[in-house]
Specification:
Elements: E1 2-8, H1 12-23, E2 29-31, H2 63-76, E3 80-82, E4 87-91, E5 97-101, E6 106-114, E7 118-120, H3 126-134, E8 138-139, H4 142-145, E9 156-159, H5 163-172, E10 179-182, H6 192-199, E11 204-207, E12 210-218, E13 222-230, E14 236-240, E15 243-246, E16 250-252, E17 284-286, H7 298-318
Parallel strand pairs: 1-2, 1-6, 2-3, 6-17, 8-15, 9-10, 9-15, 10-11
Antiparallel strand pairs: 4-5, 5-6, 7-16, 12-13, 13-14
Length: 322
């Protein structure tokens, strides 16, 4: 049996695409994922304890609860869901496309929507991951989480030296003081204008030649500090902080594509039509963070998932596949 449409991934983009596709009678199949980045199905929101900036939730909503609601809405329209199953590999060289899932099952589909997301890069310290998964002060998105009360008028740290780190640190000065930028070297790789903006901000303090050895804290207060090691002298010191923000980049979850789709220099899927979702292979569409290195928000991902479903519906109709 050849499917009309398969959707890879179950974050805001994937579930939105599934809802729109199901309502268009495309009978979509969702490979929920969860194996690609080693995280739970549902993407980055599965590790966000409170989402305050998604419309329709005036009191905020737990990230896992939000993704569960998306999934339930998809089930309402009888979307077929392969739980805890992702795409192991795809063959886009011929139509219909071939997909092998992580359970070893082979699929064929006329159209494909890729919404596998992008995973934040971490230092992979045991303490970092502990407080991240507990939702106790470690995050890779200042725009998403920076306004939380736990960070207000308290010291926080942003780790990184590129444009993202400068942007995140500058953003956090709206809420926190001081904002430490922790960098392993004695100069940033960020653009000059971004560096100047950060360095001129009186609330930002740079901790040069510093590597993070451990995130300090407890289960009651969450993050309370960080242990730094001087990359030149080897000396260690503890610095009090209430929040620990990673800004060392994201990695799009595209390894399973094996280079069959065009990407930009950061590895994000290239969309070939202005304001559309078409990738470099006709009949393959993309939505969410896997094709978005700029915004990386739940609301923008959901919008991209909507566009991908509508584009897939129209493309299938043009092919005479009803």
């Amino acid at each position: 049996m050849t499917e009309k449409l398969m959707i890879l991934g179950s974050g805001p983009a994937g579930w939105t695409a599934a809802i729109y596709a199901a309502r268009a009678n495309l009978d979509p199949v969702v490979l929920e994922g969860g194996h690609i980045a080693g995280d739970l199905p549902g993407g980055q929101l599965m590790f966000t304890t409170e989402v305050e900036n998604y419309p329709g939730f005036p009191n905020g909503v737990d990230g896992q609860e939000m993704m569960a609601a998306f999934k339930e809405q998809a089930k309402r329209f009888e979307v077929r869901i392969e739980d805890y199953t992702g795409a192991e590999s795809v063959d886009l060289s011929q139509k219909p496309f071939k997909v092998k899932d992580s359970q070893g099952k082979d699929w064929e589909t006329h159209a494909l929507i890729i919404s596998t997301g992008a995973s934040a890069n971490w230092l992979n310290l045991e303490s970092e991951q502990y407080y991240r998964k507990k939702g106790l002060g470690v995050t890779a998105c200042a725009t998403c989480d920076g306004a939380f009360p736990r960070f207000r008028d308290k010291p926080v740290a942003v780790v990184g030296g590129g444009d993202s780190a400068m942007e995140e640190a500058t953003f956090m000065t709206k809420f926190s003081n001081p904002v430490y930028i922790v960098h392993r070297r004695d100069e940033f790789r960020a653009s000059k204008i971004m560096q100047e903006r950060a360095l001129k901000n009186e609330k930002i303090k740079v901790l040069w030649n510093s590597g993070v050895e451990e995130v300090l804290g407890d289960d009651d207060d969450g993050v309370t500090g960080m242990r730094l090691k001087d990359t030149q002298s080897g000396e260690t010191r503890d610095v009090d902080i209430a929040g620990f923000f990673l800004a060392i980049g994201h990695t799009p979850n595209t390894a399973f594509l094996n280079g069959q789709l065009e990407t930009d220099d950061k590895g994000y899927l290239v969309l070939t039509q202005p304001h559309g979702s078409q990738t470099s292979v006709e009949g393959v569409f993309a939505g969410g963070d896997v094709a978005d290195s700029t915004y990386r928000q739940a609301i923008t991902a959901a919008g991209m998932g909507c566009k991908a479903a509508i584009d897939a519906e129209r493309w299938l109709a043009e092919q005479g596949i009803e």
